[in-house]
Design a protein that fits this description.
Number of helices: 1
Order of helices and strands: EEEEEEEEEHEE
Helix content: under 10%
Strand content: over 45%
Shape: globular
Structural class: mainly beta
Distance between the termini: 37 Å
């Protein structure tokens, strides 16, 4: 599986950015996309996860109400719309993905995003929020 990310950049506090992640090489019907981030000197944080049908969603408390994750199954693309960005959101954002044999697995993984160990990672995209 290969994941290609796009959409990072520099934005002022209060602004918006949209990250996208397109997968290739999926072989199973059930999968999870996730977004993780890592700021300098901090541990990696699970930001948001979504199962293949969008039925299971997870958001970290720090982004609830500001970020929205979505998935386009036809394009195997996940997006993260980030609104109301704060300087605390500055980090390298990584897309992640995993494939599963049954839908119950992808649902459970998406709901347990923080403890998920994805099988595939994107290259990372820098998001810088200035005050």
């Amino acid at each position: 599986v290969q994941l290609v990310e796009s959409g990072g950049g520099l934005v002022q506090a209060g602004g918006s950015l949209r990250l996208s992640c397109t997968a290739s090489g999926f072989r199973l019907s059930y999968y999870v996309f996730g977004w993780f981030r890592q700021a300098p000197g901090k541990e990696r944080e699970g930001v948001s996860c979504i199962s293949e049908n969008g039925g299971s969603l997870y958001y970290a408390d720090s982004v609830k109400g500001r970020f929205t994750i979505s998935v386009d199954n036809a394009k195997l693309t996940a997006s993260l719309q980030m609104n109301g960005l704060d300087v605390e959101d500055t980090a390298v954002y990584y897309c992640a993905a995993g494939q599963y044999l049954v839908g119950a697995q992808s649902k459970d993984v998406a709901n347990d995003c923080e403890r998920w160990s994805p099988g595939s990672w994107g290259q990372g995209t820098q998001v810088i929020v200035s005050s």
